Hints:
The chain is an alpha+beta fold. 59% of the residues lie in helices and 18% in strands.
Amino acid sequence: MITTRITALGLALFLTTAAQGQTLMEIYNQALRSDPALREAEANMQAQMQAKPQAWAALLPQLDLSADWTRDYVDGDSNIIDTSPGAPIGATVIRASESDIDTKSWSVNLRQTLFNTEQWFRLKKSGKEVAQAQVDYQAAQQDLMIRVSEAYFNVLAAQDTLVSEQASKEAIGRQLEQAERRFEVGLIAITDVKEAQAAYDDAVALEIEARRALANAKEVLREITGEYPQTLASPGEEFPLIPPDPQVEQDWVDVSLQQNFALESARIGTEISRDNVRIARTGHAPTLDFSASRGNNNRYRGEQDTFDEASGTSATSPRTSDTNSSRVGISLNVPIYSGGGVSSQVQEQVYLHRASRENFEKVARETERETRDAYLGVIAEIARVQALARSEESNMIALEATEAGYEVGTRTAVDVLDARRSLFLAQTQYARAKYDYLINVIKLKEAAGTLAPDDLSELDSWLVTKEELQAIPGRGGQPDASMPDTTVTEPVPPELESAQ
Length: 500
């Protein structure tokens, strides 16, 4: 009977589709190597960690060397009063001159901060910026585990849905064939045939939709890992349902308020904004610096040629100057008035500090909500998995009874279709509940700040990695021998065919 094939589906929903399956840890390791979001977070952390050496650099000695070389060429005439004996009063003569001079200079300058409160506050702030960067990166690592797990189990859920829709279409198709044959011999009305045909058309549409959902789920996982997933390991029938430890909701909330990475980052951000207020106020603080320099300045080498037209004589005079200089000093700078700019900057940082405090409170409330939700999610999913397991069994019995009633004429084809659809829905919901339980387990640990790769390894121990998929119509299995395999297969868009 058709029920036999449905039983096979129920047993196979949590088994992999090949002899070897990719485990959750294998997918996570792929994501570690190729996830752009994690690599971006790592690069941001490395960049932010340069804040401390930069702050130290401002407090250490500053030494620089400067040198320059210039060459000046001058050529021209000048009128001067002729003072030679016998020259008329007021007479002038033209004197031509030409000079070619090289100028070279160099200096070594040393500057050392003696007192600067702004630089010391920046050094103190830089340590917090480094700590925040490290916390943010740890949060990004945990976020990757969550994203990988959700994408992984969403692929499995989409596969289960597709298997269910395929089996549903096959079963309804055979019921349609049976209804047509019964109608031909006058056992049922045409209404039963039309209802079966309508149900089959709906099943075809749902199968296409399931293929698209599976293709999209695989794309989401590829976006993280950079590779399309193949066969994935999935939960087996022997599946542990472990309640949270401790089993006290408030204990988990207390831990999360102390260890949650997002909350810790917000707390450090509040401290950084307070330091920014102090730095802004140093705009009115005096600074004291020591400076020293040693150099060779104004070193000239060249000649100046002069020609006197009146006497017809020329003269060459060498020009050379070489000066060494040394300077040591202490400079004090006391800001008195900056047009109100410093006061405005202080007010700006005060408001930003207020905003950071409100952000901390917001993140704290979000953390508490997410922790409570994840805790209740684990508890609720345990009960839901157990309830859906019973629901699957009940729907199986109900379908068998409905089919028996249909055989003797006490139930209609619509009743059979509804019972079959209820069973398929219960089976897929049962699978989805298992995945939701696993996701809530790791979300609870993320909220508490304790999520680590070892937790994913533990989940792997609950997954079936080397099981063969049992015979299921549409997935390599043989149809029920009591029903001829003459169902017409509806065309499937090629872009969705590869999603299977």
